[in-house]
Design goal:
Largest sheet of chain A: 7 strands, mixed
Shape of chain A: globular
CATH architecture of one domain in chain A: 2-Layer Sandwich
Distance between the termini of chain A: 14 Å
Strand order of the largest sheet of chain B: 2-1-5-3-4
Structural class of chain A: alpha+beta
Largest interface: A-C, 118 and 124 residues
Strand content of chain A: 15-25%
Number of helices of chain B: 6
Low-confidence stretches of chain A: none
Helix content of chain B: 25-40%
Structural class of chain B: alpha+beta
Radius of gyration of chain A: 26 Å
Oligomer: heterotrimer
Number of helices of chain A: 12
Order of helices and strands of chain A: HEEHEEEHEHEHEEEHEHEHEEHEHHH
Low-confidence stretches of chain B: none
Strand order of the largest sheet of chain A: 3-5-1-12-9-10-11
CATH class of the largest domain in chain B: Mainly Alpha
């Protein structure tokens, strides 16, 4: 092989110098002349009808404007798959933390103080907080007529017959938790109007071009009148996929013709962005006497919270990866994404495929224990190799060094096991 | 309500008129535009706003400016000045962070670098445990801390070599 | 009493949006007057190292050193859409877009050089850092800066726009059969833990992380991802709890929402496993997500190995572990 110029070399990070000197510009580091500050008022109820009265807040010294649903110049919505977020809640809130108004004032402190004067009257509605309950017909509905956003079905082989042939069948239910990305840099941004009328938003985002589309639609402007500048991003992990500050800032800058800035506190950051889908995973896994995984069945229910965000893709990815990296000829998997009035969930590192190993890896260990087989050997026996078929029937044609990762990691931690040394890829 | 407050910032004597209950981080960022000091939580848990006050690290989000009277405050911006005086581009700790791959998103980095400086200024040859302890008040979500610990080890070597020269 | 145990977690991970969703990364490469190659792609540097890794891919494809590449990715008015910085897709997808654009740009640079240096074929020219030399006659050469001027004289702009479209197909609605993702990345992590049966505290003592990367564009960046991924997975397994109650997050700051500090982290041994993927840029697969995934199940299996309890609800908090140990003792 030709020696490479740079591939394979531990080149020093191009952005590192700016970061070690403190010169890298994150959105909260931007200060512009004539700039004003915005603070977001958020729902405190999981499900309620609302009425907003902003008169008192508008009279507070230093307050420049209070924006609510009626002020949105384009479509009062956004969302990556479905437009099921409102820029500002118009009639109902569907989760705690949903934005209701954006108070703009001459300082951040004034905006926060004035926010307390915006009166939100809540008429509380029954909330549904467990996705298993939310799937029932008589449950309170979050959007529309059904809370079920998506159902993925995976079917291969014949599980009824296969389970009967199994020497051991392990059944268990697993619940993975809802967690936060907890990136270190809380959401922040600045928006301003350029000389040619372009609305520019400087923020930390994972997908600037998609943000541009969402801002354009909410403002009712063509997307070439919107510019997203990506600042340094203080971690993301999926939590900067959905809109947070972008539309509020752009709208305020457009209406006021002045630069507008906002910086969330840590507490607000927790309320503002998506979370990891907690999954309720009911697993049944069967193996033959020799440790061959032979059948598995799973029902996986994911809590999407009050918005769909990436729920379809996440629960699909959970379903596709639910059997784990193992060849199992008989499989039935059902995965569901379900609305509730919980905080909304979306993209987070691993995206559905991160939750299911909680189940499949404990199931295979339990099978090994009951069959008195070494946990490493049962993995080596069943795991994907070049030419293996996945649960969806896809042939893995190349670059499948799973065996190698198992052998190397297991040896290093001190497991004793036997294996065919030909399986180990030599570096 | 404003008071006169004298202190030393990054080697320079300062005299300001300000509300003594102002948080140090707001003075640094909003008034003096030293934005290398980051705010990650506002309650002293994450360490992104770490500065050094009279040789000891502090969370500048928990320090009121009345508490810095006649004290020496060091922010990340000081390290470059220090390096420039020696004819270097970067302080050895900063260089070590780059060389060890200790930087990812970078938001915790200035605070980490200052925690490392406070350690190495007092202890030129810290052991592994002392290094871990020195940054235990600085959260990082990206790196798992390993390369940061390595960087501090390397920095200690760089600084010793610097001292010899 | 303190008891030790070992655990293993193996996983696979399909890159990209999947299921036939259009997964496109546009990229543009241009030679500018300063003799540098400017690459435009709307791919965000979120801390994962995209700016560096994508620049390395560009440099390799164009045949120049890394410092001759400038990656512009921060402005939607200047960059084409390269998709999201998620789904572990930037190295593979945008990396491929950039690779294709830079390879094409290299060909166009070589044809200008052929004219300028008077060779009869581009095969007779090699790129040596920022110089284009006639093979065997290294004194006959032209710099990239001079070449830019030559191209201008010829009325040619050296700018290439390309798109990479990932292979993904919609699955069957009833059976879920199909080829939803490509490529897949694999990983196995093993851990050793110590469980205090009185307090329920779990200390992870050692972690071994074996990660398939296809090919490591930048091993130091890969290791940084692996260590950070392990920390996040460990944190999910043992600590993180939003304290959700009636739809409200109670643990909304770092005094209540616990993530690991340096003192919580075990010794980590990284094993980078390389097995190049033919459709990937220089064989490199995305690893941003897979590096986190095996940590949690490996820790849960190690807890079982240590004290014989199955964690079926996250997090494996101290209270939960004490509860499960007591439950087990009561049953016996």
């Amino acid at each position: 092989m030709k020696p490479s110029i740079t591939i394979g070399k531990s080149e020093l990070r191009i952005d590192a110098k700016d970061k070690v000197t403190g010169k890298a510009v994150y959105p909260s580091d931007i200060y512009l002349d004539n700039m004003v500050y915005g603070y977001t008022i958020r729902s405190t109820m999981p499900h309620a009808e609302i009425k907003v009265d902003k008169i008192e807040a508008l009279a507070y010294p230093g307050v420049i404007a209070v924006f609510t649903a009626e002020d949105v110049t384009g479509e009062n919505h956004h969302g990556v798959l479905f437009k099921d977020h409102e820029v500002f809640c118009s009639k109902k809130v569907r989760r705690v933390g949903e934005p209701i108004a954006f108070v703009v004032a001459d300082t951040m402190d004034t905006a926060r103080k004035a926010a307390k004067l915006v009166k939100v009257a809540y008429n509380e509605l029954p909330a549904v907080l467990d996705p298993r309950e939310a799937m029932k017909e008589n449950s309170p509905k979050v959007h529309g007529d059904s809370n079920i956003i998506y159902h993925y079905k995976l079917r291969t082989g014949d599980i009824e017959e296969a389970f009967q042939k199994c020497e051991v069948v392990v059944e268990n239910t697993y619940e993975s938790s809802m967690v936060d990305h907890a990136f270190l840099q809380p959401e922040a941004g600045v928006a301003y109007i350029e000389e040619d009328g372009t609305v520019t938003i400087v923020t930390a985002t994972q997908y600037p071009h998609y943000d541009r589309e969402e801002v354009a639609e909410a403002l009712g402007l063509p997307h070439n009148k919107i510019k997203i500048l990506t600042s340094a991003v203080g971690g993301a992990f999926g939590g900067r996929e959905d809109i947070t500050v972008q539309i509020h800032l752009a709208l305020a800058a457009l209406k006021l013709g002045r630069p507008v800035k906002t910086t969330y506190t840590r507490e607000e950051s927790f309320q503002a962005h998506s979370k990891r889908h907690p999954l309720y995973m009911k697993y049944k896994t069967g193996a033959l006497k020799d440790g061959t995984l032979y059948a598995m069945e799973a029902e996986i229910i994911g809590d999407s919270g009050a918005h769909a965000s990436w729920a379809i893709n996440v629960l699909r990815k959970a379903g596709v990866h639910a059997a784990g990296p193992y060849c199992i000829p008989n499989i039935k998997i059902d995965s569901y994404a379900v609305y509730t009035n919980n905080p909304f969930t979306g993209a987070m590192r691993g995206f559905g495929a991160a939750q299911v190993p909680m189940a499949h890896e404990q199931q295979i260990d339990e099978i090994a224990r009951r069959l008195n087989i070494n946990p490493i050997e049962i993995r080596l026996k069943n795991c994907f190799k070049v030419g293996s078929l996945t649960a969806t029937g896809q042939t893995l044609e190349e670059s499948v060094p799973l065996t190698d990762t198992i052998i190397k990691a297991a040896k290093e931690i001190g497991y004793e096991f036997s294996y065919d040394s030909n399986e180990e890829v030599q570096p | 309500m404003n008071e006169q407050i004298r202190f030393n910032l990054n080697g320079k004597d300062m005299e300001i008129q300000a509300d003594p209950s102002m948080r140090l981080i707001d003075l640094l960022r909003d008034e003096l535009r030293l934005t290398g000091t980051k705010e990650g939580c506002g309650e002293g848990e994450c360490g992104a706003c770490t500065v050094i006050i009279d040789g000891i690290t502090a969370n500048s989000c928990l320090v009121l400016i009345s508490q810095i009277r006649d004290k020496k405050v060091t922010t990340i911006e000081a390290l470059e000045q220090e390096a420039l005086k020696k004819g270097d581009e970067l302080h050895p700790i900063q260089q070590a962070f780059i060389d060890a791959g200790a930087v990812q998103c970078g938001f915790c980095t200035p605070g980490m670098v200052l925690s490392a400086k406070a350690l190495l200024d007092h202890n030129s040859s810290p052991d592994e445990n002392e290094i871990k302890r020195s940054i235990s008040g600085n959260l990082c979500r990206c790196t798992g801390y390993k390369k940061i610990e390595k960087a501090i080890q390397i920095a200690s070597d760089y600084m010793k070599k610097d001292g010899v020269e | 009493m303190k008891k030790r145990g070992k655990g293993i977690g193996s996983i696979f991970y399909g890159t990209g949006y999947g299921n036939g969703f259009p997964d496109v990364s546009n990229a543009c490469a241009e030679l500018k007057a300063d003799g540098k190659i400017y690459v435009y792609a709307g791919a965000t540097e979120v801390g994962q190292g995209a700016k560096t890794a994508l620049s390395q891919i560009a440099a390799e494809a164009a045949g120049v050193k890394l410092d001759k590449v400038v990656l512009v990715h921060e402005d939607t008015s200047k960059t084409p859409d390269s998709g999201t910085a998620a789904a572990s897709r930037q190295t593979y997808n945008t990396g491929n877009g950039i690779r294709i654009a830079c390879e094409q740009l290299k060909q166009e640079i070589l044809s200008i050089a052929k004219e300028a240096l008077g060779t009869n074929t581009t095969m007779g020219i090699k790129i040596n850092n920022d110089m284009l030399e006639v093979k065997g006659l290294p004194d006959k050469k032209i710099s990239l800066q001079e070449l830019y001027i030559e191209a201008e004289k010829m009325g040619k702009t050296l700018r290439v726009d390309k798109a990479f479209v990932a292979h993904t197909m919609k699955m069957d609605d009833e059976t879920g059969q199909g080829a939803p993702y490509w490529p897949y990345t694999f990983a196995t992590y093993c851990v050793e833990v110590e469980v205090d049966t009185d307090t329920g505290k779990v200390d992870v003592l050692k972690a071994v992380c074996a990660q398939d990367v296809g090919r490591a564009v930048n091993p130091m960046l890969v290791e940084g991802q692996m260590e950070g991924g392990f920390a996040m997975g460990m944190s999910w397994a043992l600590y993180e709890d939003l304290g959700l109650s009636n739809g409200k997050i109670k643990n909304d700051n770092f005094s209540k929402y616990i993530i690991p500090t340096s003192l919580d982290m075990p010794e980590i041994k990284n094993i980078i496993v390389e097995d190049p993927e033919s459709t990937a840029p220089f064989g490199a697969k995305g690893i941003g997500e897979p590096v986190m995934i095996p940590a949690m199940p490996a820790i849960l299996n190690a807890i079982y190995d240590a004290v014989g309890i199955r964690i079926t609800k996250l997090p494996a908090s101290q209270q939960e572990i004490v509860r499960l140990i007591q439950e087990k003792e009561n049953q016996q």
